[in-house]
């Protein structure tokens, strides 16, 4: 069965997904929405009838899956409505750091699935299994990038702009507080907080580090603590380090594109509720 897919956002990742969908026989591109419509009209990958100018009209395209790769504000405004009509995959899960929005999405996902791509988050299924059993005690995600690869706001932007020659920790604390300040950079951490549901956004720790010497990579470290005595250092501990090739100034590493496509292919047939894919 051919799946009808709508794409929200036409940046680097959106362009990649459109190209991949068009190259496959098991999926059909039914619409693309972008804040700048001219980018869609100039694309040789999108037909005029596939350009959605008013996102409120998404229902008329009868998509089986709608994929957001634009900005967390899209999910805030349209997420619950989309879930009432079809499956929804959000590429900006930092939106769920808003507790009210997360509750609204869970409430809306009674007939369709809300899919969270794992992206650069390694080991998500194993972490979720530990959370399901209640044995997950702590989780920390550390992301290290060149300063130009961070898109930040508020005090974090000021701090990042001051980084010149020295590796600098910009933030270390709860993921919930970090998401609004770095909505384009810490989707990996948001996915981690959703997988580690017994800890959530308030107890999963996130750290972002600006390293001027790190020019060709994005580094993601995931530290997991499970059964045992955490206070004495005798609890189960697993650490993974993911080195993702990335161009200076790019928010998304190159390997994340393929990972996101794999998530898109897996975002089906899981029923209502929230699913990591």
What do these coordinates show?
There is one protein chain. With 277 residues, the chain is α/β, with parallel strands linked by helices. The chain has two domains: 3-120 and 257-276, 3-Layer(aba) Sandwich (Rossmann fold); 124-250, Dihydrodipicolinate Reductase, domain 2 (2-Layer Sandwich). The protein is built from ten helices and eleven strands. The chain has helices at residues 12-22, 37-41, 72-83, 99-108, 124-133, 154-161, 175-178, 187-195, 200-203, 254-266, and strands spanning 3-8, 27-33, 65-68, 87-90, 113-116, 138-145, 168-174, 205-210, 217-225, 237-245, 273-276. The strands form two sheets. A six-stranded parallel beta sheet has the order 2-1-3-4-5-11, sandwiched between helices. Strands 7-8-6-9-10 form a five-stranded mixed beta sheet. Helix 1 links the parallel strand 1 and strand 2. Helix 3 (72-83) runs parallel beside helix 4 (99-108) and helix 5 (124-133) runs parallel beside helix 8. The mean pLDDT is 93.
Could you write a compact summary of the structure shown?
By secondary structure, this protein is α/β, with parallel strands linked by helices. Helices cover 31% and strands 25% of the residues.
């Amino acid at each position: 069965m051919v799946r009808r897919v709508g794409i929200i956002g036409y940046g680097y990742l959106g362009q990649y997904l459109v190209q991949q969908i068009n190259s496959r026989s098991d999926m059909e591109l039914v619409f693309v929405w972008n804040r700048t419509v001219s980018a869609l009209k100039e694309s040789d990958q999108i037909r005029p009838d596939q350009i959605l100018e008013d996102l409120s009209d998404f229902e008329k395209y009868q998509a089986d899956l709608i994929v957001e790769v634009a900005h967390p504000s899209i999910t805030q405004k349209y997420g619950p409505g989309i879930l009432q009509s079809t499956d929804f995959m959000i590429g900006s899960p930092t939106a769920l750091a808003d507790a009210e929005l997360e509750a609204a999405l869970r409430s809306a996902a009674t007939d369709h699935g809300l899919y969270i791509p794992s992206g650069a988050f390694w080991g998500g299924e194993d972490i979720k299994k530990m959370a399901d059993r209640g044995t997950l005690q702590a989780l920390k995600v550390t992301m290290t990038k060149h300063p130009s690869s961070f898109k930040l706001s508020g005090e974090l932007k000021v701090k990042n702009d001051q980084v010149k020659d020295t590796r600098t920790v910009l933030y270390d604390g709860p993921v919930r507080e970090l998401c609004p300040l770095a909505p384009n950079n810490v989707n990996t951490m948001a996915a981690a907080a959703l997988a580690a549901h017994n800890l959530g956004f308030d107890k999963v720790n996130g750290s972002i580090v600006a390293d001027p010497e790190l020019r060709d990579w994005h580094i993601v470290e995931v530290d997991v603590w499970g059964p045992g005595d955490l206070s004495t250092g005798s609890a189960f501990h697993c650490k993974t380090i993911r080195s993702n090739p990335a161009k200076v100034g790019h928010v998304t590493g190159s390997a994340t594109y393929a990972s996101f496509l794999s998530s898109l292919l897996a975002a089906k047939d899981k029923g209502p509720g929230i699913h990591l894919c």
